[in-house]
Amino acid sequence: MLTGRRLLLAVTGGVAAYKSAFLARRLVEGGAEVKVMLTESALEFVGPQTYAAITGSQPHVALFGEDMVSPHTELARWCELAVVAPATAATLGKLSAGISDNLVVSTLLATKAPVLIAPAMHTEMWEHPATRRNMETLRGYGYIVVGPETGALAGGDEGIGRMSEPEAILEAIETALTPSGPSLRVLVTAGGTREPVDPVRYLGNRSSGKMGHAVADEAARRGHMVTLVTTSALPTHPAVKVVAVETAEEMLQAVEGTPADVAVMAAAVADFRPTTSGAEKIPRSQGLESIPLSPTPDILASVVARQPRPVVVGFAAETGDVERAVEKAKRKDVDLLVYNDVTEPGSGFGTDTNRVVVIDAGGGTEQWPLMTKSEVAAKLLDRALGMRVSDRP
Ligand code: PMT
Questions:
Q1: Sign for the pseudo-dihedral over CA of 203, 209, 210, 212
Q2: If 0-12 CB within 10 Å is exposed, 13-18 middle and 19+ buried, where does residue 305 land?
Q3: pLDDT at 229 (0 to 100)
Q4: Which of 102, 205, 340, 354 is catalytic?
Q5: Active site residue 205
Q6: Is the minimum distance from the CB of 300 to ligand 1 under 6 angstroms?
Q7: What is the CA(170)–ligand 1 centre distance, in A?
Q8: Bridge partners of 35?
Q9: Which numbered atom of ligand 1 lies nearest the CA of 356?
């Protein structure tokens, strides 16, 4: 897989730089041709001689004064894949803003090759809104992001921000170099349904559509054919086919008309709707003591019942108990169920972030840290798009 591949490794100034020397060694052992760029601050952590010895060629540091006439464009054109490991907050900021004041950023801006970044920094820096925004921008450019992980950080601290291990980065590099598989038909539902009481009023919920739209956008960025059935007017990736709906019944009709290999059901569908909804506004003077309700169709169940069956990912908006969601995953017979506690700050309805527990068909659970909804979407698709229905226990 790596034999003869031309890989450019950019090392920026973080303590995790020592791990990128292992990464370089693994790449060379795999048969890749590796060139290395170091920022000035990387030199505070590692020496160029280490990389020269591992890769057999002298690393590049300066934008000017090297043997090459134009190092940034030559390296940019030479590589098949550029890997930034570790990627510091400063480099992510410069990259997202296009500030090409060093060799690393200039080369990354000049390359047409895919770019894979492995961020590494302290938790506070990773969670700062500026870094969140920069990551969103870079994901939007199609950059592949690996990590960071939770664990020991510099100075004896603990938390999210640790660079992924070289093995994990290596795996992501191999995936990035593998010709992409077939484009899948991905169906996503998003937003909260609105069930009319009369032409003016409706029963609804707090879903903004952000979670489902993030999934649809990420799937489209990966080149899949995405249909998004949504009640939300949020903007989407230009390749997403949007079907706008309002009620559970309309959502069901749209979903039924959409073939899918993978279905991600992130919508908050009303469980009940007013049994009748007249054409006239109910006047206040008439009073309204109660609204008779009838159950809505179970859209998720209709997708699970399809033959052939797609991979189905459900969501569960809960208020505390993961066990309930584990039971729900079994009862709903989904391949994955994404549990979010909608009472937790930063999670659930309307937020840009989410903390989820992913439950598989066998009842296994995986707790993910608080991430942006785009990050949750990317990690979820990494899992769901690789699944086959035959993987079910
Ligand atoms: O839109 P945001 O503001 O970003 O908020 C995101 C979210 C909180 C809405 C999202 O993360 C989420 O949890 N979505 C599912 C909400 C929900 O309706 O949960 P539920 O436990 O009631 O439903 C379980 C599953 O069945 C869901 O996949 C739901 O889409 C589906 N369902 C439910 C009822 C119904 N009649 N038909 C369905 O298909």
A1: positive
A2: exposed
A3: 98
A4: 205
A5: yes
A6: yes
A7: 36
A8: 8
A9: 11
Q: Is 144 helix (H, G, I), strand (E, B) or coil?
A: strand
Distance from C-alpha of 327 to C-alpha of 312, rounded to nearest angstrom = 16
Residues 6+ apart with CB under 8 A from 190: 207, 209, 211, 212, 213, 215, 216, 228, 229, 230, 231, 232, 266, 267
Residues near 29 by Cβ (< 8 Å), separated by ≥ 6?
none
Cβ of 317 less than 6 Å from ligand 1: yes
Q: How far is the CA of 268 from the centre of ligand 1 (A)?
A: 3
Asked if 222 and 139 count as a contact pair (C-beta separation under 8 A), the reply is no
Sort strands 241-244 and 225-230 into parallel, antiparallel or unpaired: parallel
Q: Whose CA is nearest to atom 23 of ligand 1?
A: 316
Which tens digit of pLDDT belongs to each residue from 35-88?
999 999 999 999 999 999 999 999 999 888 778 888 899 999 999 999 999 999
CB 131 less than 6 A from any atom of ligand 1: no
User: Using CA atoms, how far apart are residues 80 and 98, in angstroms rounded to an integer?
Assistant: 21
The structural domains of the chain, ordered by start, are 6-177 (3.40.50.1950), 185-391 (3.40.50.10300)
State residue 327 phi and psi, 5-degree precision. Answer: -65, -40
Counting from 1 in the atom list of ligand 1, the atom nearest the Cα of 347 is 8
157 lines ligand 1 (CB under 6 A): no
Q: Is 205 in the pocket of ligand 1 (CB under 6 A)?
A: no
Please identify which residue in the block is written with the tokens 């990317």.
378
Average pLDDT for runs of 10 along the chain of length 393:
92 95 96 96 94 96 84 94 97 96 97 95 94 92 89 84 93 83 91 97 97 94 92 91 97 97 98 94 92 97 96 95 94 97 96 97 95 93 80 59
Question: CA nearest 184: which of 137, 216, 232, 206?
Answer: 216
Residue nearest to atom 18 of ligand 1 (CA): 268
